C-alpha cells in the first residue's frame, strides 16, 4: 500500500480515464480463438497477440499501478489498480496473460527478493517481455508437493538441476520459472530439504515437451532438467526455506494474499451470460426458461454467484468476520472454482441435443463456448492445489479439525 | 438485474449492538439454561425478556416518538443472529415484526395505543397462517361489521407464543379486501387458544380460533393490507434467516468440536475426509447465508422493500434454510449413536432446522419467486 486512501472522486476520475483509454485502445476480435485463462495459451499467434496487449496496457500506465516506480510501476495506491481491473472486466478485454509473473512471482520478489532481483525481474514481468512459468508439480508428486524430488546441487557459483516437472503452464514460452527443488535429500522432515529458485529457462539442459489438453489445444509442458546449471544468485528466501516460500506463493495464487500487479487473469464468465445464450432454446416443446426445474436450478446458480460477490464485499468489513476470520479468504478458490464448474457443466446440460456438439461445429451454441469453458474450468479445480486439498486446508485451519 | 447490487454496511453502532448482544446471549442462554426451558410452559425466561426490553431491543423498529430507538429493523438482524447462535428463543422476532407493521402502517392513534407498551415488553404476535401453505395468498378469516364494531370468524394456526401474547396482528378479509387487524388477547377466550406441539422445542405456538371474537372498528389498520403483508413476509423471512444462520454456525461448532475429540481406529474422527469435507460444505453454506443476511439487512430499513431488497431477503431465507438443514442433518450423523439421543445437542439444531425452513416460506418457496424476479426480465 502506498499513501493514504484515495478519495472516491479521485478514484472515479481515474476510472473514467481508464475507461476512455480502453474504449479506444482495447484490441478488436483477432478472428481466432483467444484463451479464457492464462493456462490456455497454446499457439504462437495467441502468445504474440496477448504479449502485445499486455505491453500496451502497461505502457499506458495501467498495470502494476501500485508497484514501485523504480521497477516499472507507478507507486500509486492499490485502489487505483482495482479500478483498472474492474474496468478491464467490464469492457471484456482480452486477458493479461503473464499471470505467474504478475500474480505470484512478482509479489513474491517484491516481498522477499533482493534489490538486485527486483531490478532484474519486475519490469520484464509487467511489460510482458519476460514470461514466467511455475515448476512445482512433478509426475509423481502433485498434491504431495512437499515431496518434490527434482534435485538441486550446489557446485561453486551454480546449482545443478536434475529431474522433471510437469503441467508447466506456458513452459515453452517462459523465460523464467519459479522452481521448487530439493537441495537436501537427507533432511529429516521432507519440507526442510527444499529450496526455491528464480530459474532461467534458457539454460543448457532444460527442455520442454508440450502436452495436448482435454480441449485438444495446448498450454502446458513437461519440463526436463538434465545437469542444467543455474546461477546460485537465483535462490530466493535462502537454502532450505523453499517450502515456506512456496506456501507464500500459493497464498497469492489462491487469492488469499494481496500484492498482485492486477490485470485480468481470466475471462469472467457469469451465469447471466449463460442465461443469455440459452434463452432461445426449447425443452418439451416449450421455452427452456419456462421449465420450473430449470428455473429453480438457475436461481440456485445465480445465488451462488451472488454469494461470491457478497463474500468479497464482506471481506472488506472485518466487523462481520470476527468469528471465523480466515474462512472467507481461505475458501475463495474453492468456492469460486467449484461454482464455475457446476455452472458451466449445467451450461452444457441445458443445450439439449446441441450440447453434444463441440467447438468447430457451426450449430454449436455460442460456438461451443460453454463446452470449452467447462473443460477448461478443471484447470482451476485441479491447478493450484485441488479442491480436495483446499477442503483439507479449510477444515484444518478454519474449523480446527485434525490433519488427515 | 438485482444480481449486481452488492451493498453491505456495518457501522460502529451495529458493531456495538453486536458486541452487547454477544455478551448478553452468551450469559443468559447457556446450554443448561436452554435445556431447562424445553419442558417449561412458556418456553422462555420472563426475566430475560424484561432485560431485553430494558436494553431497548424491542424498540429497534419503533420511532423515538413511540418510545423506540428508531435504529430500524436492520438492527434486529445482528441481535437475532446472536440469539440463534445461542438458541436464545423468545417472542422477539414476532414482536419486532408486529412493531414494525404498526410503526409503518397503523396510523398514529393505534401506534400510540400499542407501540410504547410493546417497547416496554408487551408480547405481540402475528396471526397470518391458516393451513400448511405459506404461499397461499387467500385469507379465510373474515371480519364483518356488527353492532359494536367487527365480528370475526375463522382460525389461524402456528401463532407464535399465542398463550402469552397480549395482542395479535391478524390478517382478515373485510368487505372483500385483505386487511390487518389488531386483536387484544383480552378479547379472545382462552378456550380459543389451543397449544400446538412444535418440532423445535425451544418454541411455542398455538392455533387460535377467532370465531365470535369482536373488536372495535378502530383496530383495523388503514388501507389494503397487500403490500404490508408482502413486506412483513419478506422481513419475517429475513429475521428467521438471520436466526437460522446463527444456529447453523453453532451447530457447526458443536460438530467440529466432537470431530476433534472423538477417536476411532486410533485417530480423531475429524481426520477422516468423509467427515471433514462435508463440514467445509457446511461452513461455506453458513457463510453464504450470513452474506445474504447482512446484504439484505443493508437494504430493508425504512422504505418498503424494492426489487433488490426483495431478492436479497428471499436469497437469505432460501440459503439459511438449506444451510441449517444441512448442518443439523450432518450433526446427527457425525455424532454416531450419541447423535441419536435426546441428550446430544445435535437434536436441538436438527429440530430447529425443520421449524426454521418452513416459517415464512421454505427455500423452494423463495427460489420460485426469485425465478420470476430474476429470469423474466
Ligand atoms: C491446467 C493446469 C495447469 C497447471 N499448471 C501448473 C503449473 O504451471 N505449474 C505447476 O507446478 N503445476 C501446474 N499444474 C499442476 C497442478 O498443480 C497439479 O495437477 C495438482 O496439484 C494436482 O496434482 P496431481 O496432478 O499430481 O494430482 P494428484 O495429487 O495425483 O491427485 C489426484 C486426485 O487425488 C486427490 N488427492 C490427492 N491427495 C489427496 C489428499 N491428501 N486428500 C484428498 N484427496 C487427495 C486429488 O484431489 C485429485 O482428485 C497445473 C494443472 C492443471 C490442470
TrEMBL record, chain A:
InterPro entries documented for this protein: Acyl-CoA_Oxase/DH_mid-dom, Acyl-CoA_Oxase/DH_mid-dom_sf, AcylCo_DH-like_C, AcylCo_DH/oxidase_C, AcylCoA_DH/ox_N, AcylCoA_DH/ox_N_sf, AcylCoA_DH/oxidase_NM_dom_sf, Mycobact_Acyl-CoA_DH
Domain called Acyl-CoA oxidase/dehydrogenase middle: residue spans: 133-225
GO MF annotation, one: flavin adenine dinucleotide binding
UniProt keyword annotation of Oxidoreductase present: yes
Acyl-CoA dehydrogenase/oxidase N-terminal domain sequence ranges: 45-129
Signal is among the record's keywords: no
Domain Acyl-CoA dehydrogenase/oxidase C-terminal intervals: 240-399
Cellular component aspect of the GO annotation: plasma membrane
Reported cofactor(s): FAD
Coiled-coil segments: none
Source domain of life: Bacteria
Keywords recorded for this protein, A-Z: FAD, Flavoprotein, Oxidoreductase
Family of this protein: Belongs to the acyl-CoA dehydrogenase family.
Name of the featured protein: Acyl-CoA dehydrogenase
Natural source organism: Seongchinamella unica
Amino acid at each position: 500500500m502506498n499513501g493514504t486512501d484515495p478519495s472516491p472522486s479521485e478514484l472515479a476520475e481515474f476510472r473514467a480515464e481508464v475507461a476512455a483509454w480502453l474504449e479506444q485502445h482495447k484490441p478488436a476480435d483477432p478472428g481466432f480463438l483467444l484463451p479464457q485463462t492464462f493456462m490456455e495459451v497454446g499457439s504462437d499467434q495467441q502468445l504474440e497477440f496477448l504479449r502485445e496487449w499486455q505491453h500496451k496496457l502497461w505502457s499506458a500506465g495501467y498495470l502494476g499501478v501500485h508497484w514501485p516506480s523504480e521497477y516499472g510501476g507507478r507507486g500509486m495506491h492499490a485502489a487505483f489498480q482495482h479500478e483498472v481491473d474492474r474496468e478491464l472486466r467490464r469492457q471484456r478485454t482480452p486477458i493479461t496473460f503473464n499471470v505467474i509473473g504478475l500474480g505470484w512471482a512478482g509479489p513474491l520478489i517484491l516481498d522477499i527478493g533482493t534489490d538486485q532481483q527486483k531490478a532484474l525481474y519486475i519490469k520484464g514481468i509487467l511489460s510482458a517481455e519476460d514470461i514466467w512459468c511455475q515448476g512445482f508439480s512433478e509426475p509423481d508428486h502433485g498434491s504431495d508437493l512437499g515431496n518434490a524430488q527434482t534435485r538441486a546441487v550446489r557446485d561453486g557459483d551454480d546449482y545443478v538441476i536434475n529431474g522433471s516437472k510437469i503441467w508447466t503452464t506456458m513452459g515453452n514460452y517462459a523465460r523464467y520459472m519459479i522452481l521448487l527443488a530439493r537441495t537436501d535429500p537427507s533432511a529429516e522432515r521432507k519440507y526442510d530439504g527444499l529450496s526455491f529458485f528464480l530459474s532461467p529457462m534458457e539454460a543448457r539442459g532444460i527442455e520442454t515437451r508440450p502436452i495436448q489438453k482435454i480441449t485438444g489445444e495446448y498450454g502446458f509442458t513437461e519440463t526436463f532438467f538434465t545437469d542444467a546449471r543455474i546461477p546460485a544468485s537465483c535462490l530466493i528466501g535462502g537454502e532450505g526455506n523453499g517450502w515456506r516460500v512456496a506456501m507464500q506463493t500459493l497464498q497469492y495464487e489462491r487469492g488469499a494474499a494481496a500484492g498482485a500487479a492486477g490485470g485480468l487473469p481470466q475471462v469472467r464468465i457469469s451465469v447471466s451470460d449463460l442465461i443469455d445464450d440459452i434463452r432461445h432454446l426449447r425443452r418439451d416443446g416449450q421455452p427452456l426458461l419456462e421449465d420450473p426445474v430449470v428455473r429453480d436450478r438457475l436461481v440456485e446458480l445465480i445465488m451462488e454467484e451472488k454469494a461470491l460477490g457478497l463474500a468479497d464485499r464482506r471481506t472488506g468489513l472485518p466487523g462481520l468476520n470476527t468469528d471465523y476470520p480466515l474462512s472467507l479468504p481461505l475458501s475463495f478458490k474453492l468456492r469460486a472454482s467449484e461454482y464455475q464448474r457446476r455452472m458451466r457443466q449445467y451450461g452444457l446440460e441445458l443445450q439439449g441435443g446441441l450440447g453434444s456438439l463441440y467447438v468447430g461445429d457451426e450449430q454449436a451454441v455460442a460456438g461451443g463456448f460453454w463446452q470449452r469453458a467447462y473443460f477448461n474450468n478443471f484447470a482451476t479445480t485441479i491447478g493450484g492445489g485441488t479442491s480436495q486439498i483446499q477442503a483439507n486446508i479449510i477444515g484444518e485451519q478454519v474449523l480446527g479439525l485434525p490433519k488427515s | 438485474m438485482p444480481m449486481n447490487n452488492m451493498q453491505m454496511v456495518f457501522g460502529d453502532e451495529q458493531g456495538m449492538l453486536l458486541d452487547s448482544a454477544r455478551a448478553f446471549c452468551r450469559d443468559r442462554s447457556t446450554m443448561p439454561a436452554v435445556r431447562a426451558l424445553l419442558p417449561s410452559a412458556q418456553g422462555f425466561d420472563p426475566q430475560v425478556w424484561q432485560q431485553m426490553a430494558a436494553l431497548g431491543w424491542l424498540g429497534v423498529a419503533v420511532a423515538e416518538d413511540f418510545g423506540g430507538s428508531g435504529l430500524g429493523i436492520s438492527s434486529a438482524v445482528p441481535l437475532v443472529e446472536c440469539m440463534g447462535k445461542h438458541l436464545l428463543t423468545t417472542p422477539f422476532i414476532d414482536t419486532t415484526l408486529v412493531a414494525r407493521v404498526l410503526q409503518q402502517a397503523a396510523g398514529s392513534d393505534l401506534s400510540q395505543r400499542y407501540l410504547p407498551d410493546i417497547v416496554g415488553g408487551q408480547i405481540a404476535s402475528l396471526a397470518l397462517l391458516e393451513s400448511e401453505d405459506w404461499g397461499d395468498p387467500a385469507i379465510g378469516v373474515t371480519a364483518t361489521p356488527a353492532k359494536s364494531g367487527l365480528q370475526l370468524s375463522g382460525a389461524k394456526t402456528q401463532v407464535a407464543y399465542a398463550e402469552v401474547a397480549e395482542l395479535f396482528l391478524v390478517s382478515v378479509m373485510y368487505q372483500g379486501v385483505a386487511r390487518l387487524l389488531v386483536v387484544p388477547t383480552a378479547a379472545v377466550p382462552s378456550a380459543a387458544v389451543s397449544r400446538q406441539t412444535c418440532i423445535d422445542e425451544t418454541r411455542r405456538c398455538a392455533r387460535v380460533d377467532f370465531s365470535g371474537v369482536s373488536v372495535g372498528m378502530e383496530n383495523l389498520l388503514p388501507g389494503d393490507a397487500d403490500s404490508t403483508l408482502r413486506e412483513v413476509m419478506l422481513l419475517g423471512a429475513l429475521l428467521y434467516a438471520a436466526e437460522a444462520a446463527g444456529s447453523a454456525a453453532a451447530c457447526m461448532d458443536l460438530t467440529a468440536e466432537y470431530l476433534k475429540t472423538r477417536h476411532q481406529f486410533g485417530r480423531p474422527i475429524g481426520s477422516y475426509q468423509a467427515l471433514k469435507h462435508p463440514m467445509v460444505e457446511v461452513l461455506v453454506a453458513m457463510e453464504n447465508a450470513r452474506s445474504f443476511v447482512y446484504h439484505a439487512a443493508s437494504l430493508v430499513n425504512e422504505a418498503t422493500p424494492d426489487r433488490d431488497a426483495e431478492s436479497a431477503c428471499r436469497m437469505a431465507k432460501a440459503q439459511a434454510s438449506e444451510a441449517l438443514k444441512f448442518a443439523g442433518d450432518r450433526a446427527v450423523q457425525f455424532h454416531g449413536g450419541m447423535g441419536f439421543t435426546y441428550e446430544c445437542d445435535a437434536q436441538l439444531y436438527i429440530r430447529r432446522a425443520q421449524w426454521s425452513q418452513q416459517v415464512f416460506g421454505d427455500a423452494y418457496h423463495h427460489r420460485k419467486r426469485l425465478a420470476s424476479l430474476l429470469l423474466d426480465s
